[in-house]
Amino acid sequence: MENNTKEKTFLQRAVTILLILSSISLVLTLYSIYKQEETVKNIQQIQEKQDLNAHTSQEFITYIDSINHNQTHINQASEESEKQTQEKARLKTLMTKVLKDAYAAFPDPNDEPQYFMTDLDGDKIPELWVTTGTSTADSKLDAYVNNNGNLKKITTEEGVFNCTYHIGKNYVLLCYGHMGFGGWYKLTINNGKIKKECIFEEELGDDEYEYSKPKEPCIQEYNVSDLSLLDRFFQ
Questions:
Q1: What confidence score (pLDDT) does residue 88 get?
Q2: Most CB contacts within 10 A, which of 22, 121, 172, 182?
Q3: DSSP characters for the chain?
Q4: Where residue 94 falls among pLDDT bands split at 50, 70, 90?
Q5: Which residue has the higher pLDDT, 66 or 166?
Q6: How far apart are CA 163 and CA 158, in angstroms?
Q7: What is the pLDDT of residue 57?
Q8: Could you give the CA distance from residue 59 to residue 56 in angstroms, rounded to a whole number?
Q9: CA-to-CA separations, 117 to 108, 127, 166, 218, in angstroms, rounded
Q10: What's this model's pTM, rounded to 2 decimal places?
Q11: pLDDT score of 6
Q12: Residue 173: CA atoms inside 13 Å, Cβ hemisphere, count?
């Protein structure tokens, strides 16, 4: 009887031990699975961080490139602006010399040459027009145009002592009237050359004393000793 009791007790303890060992094994297995999942998760987080860093780095590189690109355009625009400023300053100096030379050639105040300025080609660099002479015989109109930062002289017309000038869209209208004969002549500038086109001519009758007047506004001429118009164009 006593032996049966001891055997039963032993079996109970053995079962208990087996259950404990099974529980421990299960716990270890679950812990192993947990650690594996944690490892996978950590690997994924590291990969995501690396991907994010790579994306951020690329965005930053793109941002820097855009700044450099914009700065290049700014520098180019600044250089072009500086070049234009220097070119205009040079042209103003050259035009000033033309006006002073014209004044020196005709020192008599009654014969002082006159000038006016236009921008027929719209490049914001004016053309200079100078009229000189004391009569129909020796009077002439000269135009000076920009030629790569230098001044190019174009003698456009002679015998302009009795002429007026009118401004149109991209042209100057030269209006002549003398000894009963009158005409309108359109002057345009193309590739540094003057083109003259007759628009209208007339002969006055015995009882007629006034020449026809065009609709284009008359250009105000300035004495070559007055540089205010030149200064205004080169502000």
A1: 86
A2: 172
A3: -HHHHHHHHHHHHHHHHHHHHHHHHHHHHHHHHHHHHHHHHHHHHHHHHHHHHHHHHHHHHHHHHHHHHHHHHHHHHHHHHHHHHHHHHHHHHHHHHHHHHHHHH--SGGG--EEEEE-TTSSS--EEEEEE-SSTTT-EEEEEEEETTEEEEEEEEE--TTEEEEEETTEEEEEEEETTEEEEEEEEEETTEEEEEEEEEEE--TT-------SSPBPPPEETT--HHHHHHT-
A4: very high
A5: 166
A6: 10
A7: 61
A8: 5
A9: 23, 6, 12, 13
A10: 0.65
A11: 63
A12: 18
Which two structure tokens, joined as six digits, stand for 132?
């000189």
Phi, psi of 216 (to 5 degrees): -65, 140
| Percent of the chain residues topping a pLDDT of 70 | 77
> Pick from 225, 223, 216: which is nearest to 187 by CA?
216
Q: Is the pLDDT of residue 197 over 80?
A: yes
Residue tagged 């690396």 (tokens):
50
Q: Say if residue 59's pLDDT is above 70.
A: no
Asked if residues 170 and 188 have their Cβ atoms less than 8 Å apart, the reply is yes
Copy the structure tokens of residue 200. Answer: 């209208």
Strands 181-190 and 140-147: unpaired
